């Protein structure tokens, strides 16, 4: 497999959080850590994906708290859509050889 394939797989592995929530966190980290030495360009993709996961967790906690103010329900729906759409876009871009910077994320890991 090429670096583009691994980068695409890295982004799309976030979608495993749907059927098994823990896999959506573990799989991208494992792929990133194992393959970043072999494919140095994969390091930037791994950081981007990890920042996305951390940001989504933070936003979900805040939206969960805001459920009591009704607006949290709409935020959780929006976050659910973002959690599906953004990794797919990231995977497509990675397969094209581009690094896609996820919008709306906190850049905690640089």
Report the sheet-strand fraction: under 5%
- How would you classify the quaternary structure? single chain
The chain-level mean pLDDT equals 93
Q: Main beta sheet: strand number and arrangement?
A: none
Distance between the termini: 26 Å
Number of strands: 0
Radius of gyration: 14 Å
Assign a percent range to the helix content. Answer: 55-70%
Shape: elongated
Provide the low-confidence segments as ranges.
Answer: none
Structural class: mainly alpha
SSE string: HHHH
Describe the structure in your own words.
This protein is mainly α and 110 residues long. The protein has four helices and no strands. The longest helix has 25 residues, at 42-66.
How would the blueprint of this fold be written?
Layout: H1 3-12, H2 23-35, H3 42-66, H4 71-95
Helix pairs in contact: 1-2, 1-3, 1-4, 2-3, 3-4
Pick out its properties:
4 helices; mainly alpha; 110 residues
What's this, in brief?
The chain has helices spanning 3-12, 23-35, 42-66, 71-95. The protein is mainly α and 110 residues long.
């Amino acid at each position: 497999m090429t670096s583009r394939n691994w980068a695409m797989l890295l982004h799309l592995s976030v979608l495993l959080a749907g059927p098994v929530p823990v896999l959506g966190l573990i799989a991208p980290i494992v792929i990133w850590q194992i393959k970043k030495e072999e494919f140095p360009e994969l390091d930037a993709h791994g950081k981007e994906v990890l920042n996305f996961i951390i940001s989504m967790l933070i936003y979900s906690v805040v939206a969960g708290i805001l459920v009591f103010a009704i607006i949290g329900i709409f935020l959780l729906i929006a976050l659910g859509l973002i959690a599906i759409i953004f990794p797919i876009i990231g995977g497509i871009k990675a397969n094209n050889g581009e690094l896609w910077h996820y919008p709306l994320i906190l850049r905690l890991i640089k």
